[in-house]
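QA checklist item 7 of 12: single-chain prediction sanity check.
[x] sequence parsed
[x] length recorded as 679
[x] structure emitted
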Amino acid sequence: MAEREIVKTSCPRDCYDGCGIAVVKRGGRIARVLGDPDHPVSRGALCGKCAIAYNGVWLDPGARLLHPMRRTGAKGRGRFERIPWDEALAETAGRLKDIAAEHGADSILHTHYTGTCSSIANAFPGRFFARLGATEAEPDSICNNAGHAAWGYVFGDSHTGFDPRTARESSCIVVWGANPSHSAPHAHKHWLKESPARVIAIDPVRHETARDADLHLRLLPGSDAALAFGMCHVARRDGLLDHGYIRDRVLGYDEVEADIQAATPAWTADKTGLAVADIEEAARAYAAGPSLLWLGQGLQRQRTGGNIFRACAMLPAFTGNIGKPGAGFYYLNDGSGIIARKGAAPVRTEPGDGGAAGPRISQMDVPAALNDPGRFRAYMAWNCNPVASNPDQARMRSGLAREDLFTVVVDCFPTDTADYADIVLPAASFLEFDDLTCSYFNLTVGAQAKCAEPMGESLPNQEIFRRLATAMGYEEAFLHRDDASMLDEALAGMGLGIAFDELKEKGWVWGSDEPLVLWAEGVFPTPSGRIEIACPRAEADGHPRTPRAVADPPPRDGRLRLLSPAGKWLMNSSYGNDPRIRELMGEPAVAIHPDDAARLDVADGQRVVLANDAGELAMTAVVSDIVPAGALLADKSRWPRGEGGHNVNLLHIPRKTDMGESTSVHGVEVTVSRSPAIR
C-alpha cells in the first residue's frame, strides 16, 4: 500500500467559517480532502458542498482548465485552441498596450471577486491593474457595499465586528438577514448551538437556522428598518437603554428619539407583519444583554439597504451592547487587521491617504457599459464568473458577445464567462500553491499549503500577473514580489511570532490567546470619535442625516418580491459545475406561499414563468410557507449553461441601493404565471 501522508491546509472560499483542511496523500498524490480534526471550526468535517467539490471537480483534470487557450469560434460558444504561455501573454499584453494607447487605459475594465479569498492570490492582481490604470468594477457592489457604506458612516469602520469566542458570555445572539445554515454551516452546527445565549433569527425566510432558533421573526421583506425602530421603542419604554453610553459614545440619539417614540409595537407590527408579543420579546432579550448582533450580507441587498443598516446600528449603540464581554456588533471581520492591532480600534484615515484610487464603476452599471463600444474596449475577469453572478444577464451576454471587446478570463474552470473569452489563462487551485487565509468571522489565521503541483500548465494568480507585467515591460518591484517574502511580511505584520513554514506544520493559529473584546475603548474612527447615528458626512453626501423609520411598500400590480439568497450546495457560483452538486440541487425551483399559489392557481410541482422587464424564466413551483405571502424564494448562482443559458439573475434588474451603488437584488419584483409548456 502506498505511503499515507497528511497535509494541513485551509479553505479559502467566500464563507464565514474559514475551515481547516486535512489533505490525505497516497504515493505523493491527493487521495482525499477532509476536514482537519484539530481545527476549532471544521472539527474533522467539511461542509457538504466543499466535501463533494474538493473531492470532485477540483481533483478532476477533465474539469479543469489546463493550458492557455485562444478563441477559435464565435463568442459564447466556448471553442478554443491550445497555445503556449509566451504566446498567450504576448498577445494579451500587445492588445492591452494597443487599446491603452488608442483609447486610454480606463477603457480596459477588470472585474474580480471571491473565487478565492486567500491573501496573495486575491490581492496581488490588483497591483497590475493599478499600474495599468484600468477601470475596476467595484467588487463589493455585486454583494455587500451598501452595508459597508452605511457602517462606514455610523462606526467609521465596517470590517471590525466581534470576536465569536465571546459568545460564551452572551445571553442573546441576534442573527439578522443571514443564513448560517447555508453560508456558515459550521457556525450553524456548532457556534450558535454551543453558546448559552438565546438565539433570535430575523429573516423573511424560514431557513434551517431560523427553524432552530429560540425565536424567529419572519418579517415582511423590506420592513427591517421599521423593526429596528420598534425594538428601540420597546427598549426605551422598558428602561433598557444605556443612557450613559449614549451620552459618552453616541451622536444623534436626540435626533431620532421622536421617531423611536412613534414606532409603537402596534405600528411596528403593522409595518412588519409580526406579532406584537414577538417584537417585544425580541427587543427585551436583546436590550437586556450582553448581546451579539450579526447583520448578514443579505439584509442590505435591498433598495434601502443602507438605511436598514443605519437603523439596525441604533440597537447596540443605544443599549450599550458594545465593547464588553459577550456584546458587540458584526458585519465582517478583517481578521488580519484586527489581529495586527490585537483588537484595538482602527485608526481613522481620510479618503485618499493611500494614494489616488483608479477609476471604478458599480457592477450594476457593467452590463450596460459592456454594450457601449465607446466605453470599454477590453474586459478581464479573474476570481469570478460574471455571466452567472452579475445582474441583467441578457445584456451581460450581449455585451460580452461584442467582437470588438477583447476579453481575457483567468480561472480554474471553463465557466460561462470563459466561453466569451478571446484568451483564457488557466489558474492553479488552492491545493496547488502556498498562501494565507483569514476567516472574515473567526479570528484565525491559516496556512494554505501546496499539496500538489498545479494541474497541466496552470499557475497561481500572482504568477500569472507577474508574467503579464513582464510581457507589458513593467519593471516596478512591487509587480514582481515573490510569494515567500510577501507571506513573511504578512505574518510579521500580524505579530504572531510564527514563520510560514511553522504555520504550515500547525495548520492554523488563533490571532490571540484569549477572546478579544472589540471596541472596548469606546472610540470610533469617525470624525467625532463617536458612533454617528446622526451623521454629517452622510448628509453631505446627499443621504438623510439620520436613519428613517420606513418600510418598503408591498409589490404592486399583482407582482411578488423575489428573494434569491445563497443556496445550500453552492458557494456563490463555485461548485456549480460539479456533477454531484448539480444532482443534489435538482431542477431550478421557486418557493411560493400557499396563499399566493391559490390566488394564481399554481399547484406544487407545476412549471411557472417568472417575468419582469429584464426577461422571463421558467421554474418549478414549490408551494411552501418558507416565505411569507407576497414573496418568492429561488437560490442564486447556478451555472447558466446547464439551465438553458440562464439562471435567476436573468430577472435581476440592476437598480442600485440607496448608498454604495450596490445590488438591490432582494428587491426584484416579478409576475408569476402558469407555464403553457416546459421550456
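[x] summary fact logged: The first strand starts at residue 4 and ends at 10.
[ ] second reviewer sign-off
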